[in-house]
Amino acid sequence: MFDAIVIEKADETQSVSYQQVSTAQLPEGDVRVEVAYSTLNYKDALAITGRAPVVRTFPMVPGIDFSGVVRESAHPDYKPGDRVVLNGWGVGETHWGGLAKEARVKGDWLVPLPAGISLRRAMAIGTAGYTAMLCVMALARNGVTPERGEIAVTGAAGGVGSVAIALLAGRGYQVAAVTGRAEESDYLKSLGAVSIVDRVELAGKPRALNKERWAGAIDVAGSTPLANLLSMIRYGGTVAACGLAAGMDLPASVAPFILRGVALAGVDSVMCPAKTRREAWRLLAKELDLDKLDALSVELPFDKVIETAPKFLDGRIRGRVVVPIAPELG
Q: Tell me, what's the pLDDT at 314?
């Protein structure tokens, strides 16, 4: 038996609690992993609080990512003792996730932990950091180089935003951090931001075109902020969109696309092909400043996850939240 967070639903009412579950209860998969660390992400907070229909089957163990050590494997790529990381693939939504001492998953969903990244730092990066790298890769793929100009990052004090700023700064980009929390200015500048933009500048009814301002952007908001961002991107620029914190709608005009050649690059981290996600992790191991990574991450005790989830959604948590489950694994 081991500890897990379990979300249940009865008569349309959701409940969440800490429970003891057994290895026999784990869902099907060809690799069993002892979880060292997991995280609290935006999607996890939605699942735990029930504020959005993230969980598709019940009961469910949340936790969209984890790092750990393989204990049993019928997959040809993994053997007991291998250190691995998992992000996405519906884990924590349709398949039991990482906020438990053990997980059983498909080996095809795993990524070997790159050399130089500890199990803890793998979760300081987590799905948010891995998504941030996918966004940076999308900008580079579309020709948005540092010489093109400043890059805006929305949700800058959050997990994706914090890692994105550090990654972009490391590549030599000038970064404008868009945030509603002015008190985080020093923190954002310590990650590499050169300017702070109040998010109210992206509020209000979007115009078809605004004055060209940024060469590109990484957006976690969607909706009105994304529409306003698009109207402010310079000719030939790109916005990498990976989130919907402000909503799933997009009240935008086609003007930026057909008059300025702006590209909107959608970034999906959940079902991203294995080859791309392995490349993202390779680049993270190579490029991410580990001192900055440590500065933007905090540890949250496993027994505090449920009570902290509402604070996460209310924007009262910054950076990355790492949840130690078996930290003795390394």
A: 84
Task: With cut-offs at 50, 70 and 90, classify the pLDDT of residue 9.
Answer: very high
How far CA 102 is from CA of 97, 238, 326, in Å, comes to 9, 40, 10
Phi, psi angles (nearest 5°) of residue 121: -65, -25
Phi, psi of 24 (to 5 degrees): -65, -25
Task: Decide if 85 is inside a domain.
Answer: yes
- State the Cα torsion 306-312-317-320 to the nearest 10°: 80
CATH number at residue 251: 3.40.50.720
Q: Is residue 17 part of a domain?
A: yes
User: Average of pLDDT values for 122-140?
Assistant: 97
**CA 320 – CA 318 distance, rounded (Å):** 7
Q: What is the 3-state secondary structure (H, E, C) of 117-132?
A: CCHHHHHHHHHHHHHH
CATH of the domain at 37: 3.90.180.10
CB 36 within 8 A of CB 302: no
Structural domain range at position 21: 2-113+300-329
Domain end residue (candidates: 215, 248, 266)? 266
* Domain annotation covers residue 97: yes
